[in-house]
Amino acid sequence: MPDSMLAAGCFILTVGLYYANKRLYEKSLRLILMPLLATPAVLIAIVLLADIPYHDYIADTHWLMWLLGPATIAFALPIYDNRNMVRKHWLSISAGVLAAVVTSVSTSVLLARWLGLSVMLQKGLAVRSVTTPFAIEAARSIGGPADLAAVFVVITGVLGMAIGETVLTCLPMVRSRLAHGAIFGAAAHGAGTAKARQIGEVQGVVSSLVMMIAGLISVLGAPVIGKLFF
């Protein structure tokens, strides 16, 4: 099979599996069937079993990565619709985002060092709580592996989406809808924001805002992060 045909087939397979997985998840809502979890697992199994070279698989599917940018910007629409609420709570939201970024970066790097991981892995993990488009740019700014950073982001988002509600039930003192949304946006970025929108409109709006501000701070502060930790 020509490489161009194989690449096109991989693209069709990826999109088709995602939509099929999405419909299946909507019917059962089982954790193991989440599209962000099940679709990559099936794709990896198919690629390995069929012995498809990575460069052939990514040749056409890399356009799907490009769509992450517009998808992230789309989160700004509900923020605009709820701008009055954002104006009212801008100070607490901003302070929370700054605290979340500092905590995420410092704990990730320090834990990685304690475990004896390499410097490259530490740089990739430093931006794991930022949505993928921002994480890739931030990782490049500090000289980290962009591909690994993207993998860590996906893992963090899926775990945050999966266990976020359970964690919040263990924190009865955190009752505010704003706090719930901020936690999802700061800890689990895009996947967490999708979950927050399922819980409530306010949670979804705050999660979107926190995710975007955290990403912007991480990209702009990447040089500082690099000097402080590496």
Outline the structure in words:
- There is one protein chain.
- This protein is mainly α and 230 residues long.
- The protein has two domains: 3-65, no CATH class; 76-229, no CATH class.
- 83% of the residues lie in helices and 0% in strands.
- It is built from 13 helices and no strands.
- The protein has helices at 3-28, 35-50, 54-66, 68-74, 76-81, 83-88, 90-114, 119-126, 132-141, 146-169, 177-199, 201-220, 222-229.
- The longest helix is centred in the first third of the chain and has 26 residues, at 3-28.
- It starts with a helix and ends with a helix.
- The mean pLDDT is 84.
- Give the overall shape: globular
Q: Total domains, how many?
A: 2
Radius of gyration: 18 Å
| Count of helical regions | 13
Number of strands: 0
Helix content: over 70%
Distance between the termini: 46 Å
Mean pLDDT across the residues is 84
Strand content: under 5%
Biggest beta sheet summary? none
- Helix-strand string: HHHHHHHHHHHHH
Taking pLDDT < 50 over at least 5 consecutive residues as the criterion, the unreliable ranges are none
Structural class: mainly alpha
